[in-house]
Each structure stands twice: as C-alpha cells, then as structure tokens.
Design the sequence.
C-alpha cells in the first residue's frame, strides 16, 4: 500500500521521421515536490524506452484519486496515520481508512430510486389534455393554453410523484430491504459457520453491511480474500481496487449528500496536490462537513461471529474504525 504526500507529472516526446510519441507519467514521493518530479521523470523515460522497444503501453495515466486506478498509488489527502494504517480524504470529501492487511468488505443492497419514472410522460400527456380542454373552453390562442396546461401538468406530476413515493415505492423498498438484510445476514452467518477459525465483526451501513475480519491479517491478493468476496457478493469494483492498490479500505465518515451537504468539488477534490490543503474554500467546506458529521454515524455494530480470536493488528484497526465511524452510538447512518 502506497499513499504518497507529493505528486508530479512528467511529459516526454520522441520524434523519428513521421512518427511522434508523447508520453505522460505521474511521479510521487513522501519527501518533497522535487523528489516527486524526479520520480515522474524517471518513470516517463522508462516508459518511453519500452514503447520504442515495441511495447504497447498507455500514452498517459488517468487522473483519478482511487476508484478506477490501475495500480497507481492512492492519490488523496493524508489526514492521519495510525502505524501502517492511513486515513485519507476521498474525492467527495469523506474520510477513508486504508489498511495494508486488515480485511474490510462491504456488501451493499444499493439505494432505491423512489421517483416515479413515468413523470415526463405524465407531463406531456397532461399538457396535451389540459391544453385541448382549455381550447375547447374558449381560449382563443393556443400558446397561452399550452403554457397554463404545462404548469398544471407539472404540479400534477410532482403530486403524483410524491404520492407514488409515499404510498407505493417506500413501502416496497422497505420490504425489499428487509428481505435483502435477512438473506445477507444468513449468508454471512453460514459463511462463518463453515469456517470456525474465522472471526467477523458485522456492521450495518446505510446501503447494507460491512465486515471486518479479526482473526488474522490478509494479503489483499490472497486467493482466500477473493473467495470470500465472491461468496458474500462484495462489489467487484472494490475487490479489484483492493487487488490493484494492495490494501483494504473503509469509509469512516458520512457521505456529504446524506447529510444535506454538497460534495467536495474540483479543483479541491479528486486529483490531489499537497497545496490544496491551504485552499480557503476547501478548509471552509471541511469545517461545515465536520460540524454536520458529528451528528451521524457511518456504520453501526451488529454482532461478532466466529471463534477465531482476534489478531493484535486487527484490534488496533477496529479501535480506530469504530471511533471514527461512531459505530457504538445511536446516531442516524449517513
């Protein structure tokens, strides 16, 4: 697991006859901007040597913080360190706990869309019907009739959307979520029952459940990790990121939009640079975020399963995780 403090980018161009090759590569360091630039220069020269030797390599690396990165280190603000475990602020502003060998796994049911999906069609149909009715009622000009009809149709669609969400979608979503929760917990318990040397802590999250393995540490590329992820239905993107980044990861503070806040926007997000820490707008957003986050939990402890004991490394991570998540407090999840 590598989470550098400093980042740079190098560009190198090679022209030979009509052929021109331009490469860009990132560099990183925990020491300084200059060291990061030197690393970028070295990486781009090495990449050019490979390309000129006939290798088919990407011309540039994607500017991403974490999600989607193909082996490039995590590019996020480092907020705190606890031994080998690092707390970072992700692209939309939440805190994440990154650990090289303590296994986290989230199993998500997804968040339901409670909107009435036929709202646009309803507006069109209602506009036509009301416009025709107003025309028949004696309005001489068609444009005002359409305008009035559209306003009435918009109000009607919003009303229908609210009624649908309140009396149809929410009850259905609640029933579906309860069924999913029961099935997911049964699957988790069956998994542990078949592995008596395991110990898993189960937490409830806004979208499902989080699992924390306590009995031993894991290499993120361990086949046993992949088997667990497959057996319990862990998000494939998260599984791929664990493999590529050589670490496990858990969000330990609320998602801003679940608290009614806007997310952290560029240029104060995503492609992190050390100087972003001094941006006034970023500091102000973090102040408002922290104030709101104090009223929410990121997950809630449910139960511990298995008889495999607890490894010291896992205990240390659990203490940090539970403290930041407020996992033992009766607060709304976000």
Sequence:
């Amino acid at each position: 697991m590598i989470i550098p403090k400093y980042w740079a980018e190098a560009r190198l161009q090679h022209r030979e006859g009509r052929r021109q090759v331009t490469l860009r590569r990132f560099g990183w360091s925990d020491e300084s901007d200059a060291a990061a630039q030197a690393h970028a220069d070295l990486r781009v020269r090495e990449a050019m040597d490979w390309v000129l030797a006939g290798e088919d390599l990407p011309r540039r690396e994607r500017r991403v913080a974490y999600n989607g990165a193909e082996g490039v280190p995590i590019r996020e603000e480092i907020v705190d360190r606890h031994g080998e475990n690092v707390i970072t602020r992700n692209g939309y502003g939440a805190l994440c706990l990154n650990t090289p060998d303590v296994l986290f796994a989230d199993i998500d049911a997804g968040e339901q869309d409670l909107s009435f999906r036929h709202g646009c069609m309803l507006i069109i149909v209602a506009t036509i019907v009301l416009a025709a009715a107003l025309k028949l009622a004696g309005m001489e000009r068609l444009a005002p009739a359409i305008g009035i009809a559209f306003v009435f149709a918009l109000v009607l669609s919003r009303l229908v959307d609210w009624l649908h969400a309140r009396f149809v979608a929410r009850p259905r979503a609640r029933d579906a979520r309860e069924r999913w929760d029961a099935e997911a917990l049964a699957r988790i318990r069956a998994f542990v029952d078949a592995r008596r040397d395991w110990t898993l802590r189960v937490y409830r999250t806004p979208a499902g459940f989080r699992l924390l393995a306590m009995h031993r540490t894991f290499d993120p590329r361990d086949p046993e990790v992949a088997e667990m992820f497959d057996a319990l239905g862990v998000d494939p993107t998260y599984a791929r990121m664990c493999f590529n980044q050589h670490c496990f990861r858990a969000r330990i503070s609320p998602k801003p939009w679940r608290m009614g806040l806007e997310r952290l926007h560029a240029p104060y997000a995503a492609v992190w640079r050390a100087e972003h820490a001094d941006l006034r707008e970023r500091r102000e957003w973090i102040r408002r975020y922290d104030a709101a986050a104090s009223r929410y939990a990121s997950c809630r402890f449910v139960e511990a399963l298995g008889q495999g004991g607890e490894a010291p490394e896992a205990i240390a991570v659990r203490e940090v995780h539970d403290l930041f998540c407020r996992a033992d407090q009766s607060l709304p999840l976000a």
Residues 142-193 form the longest helix (52 residues). Residues 199 and 306 are 4 Å apart (CA to CA).
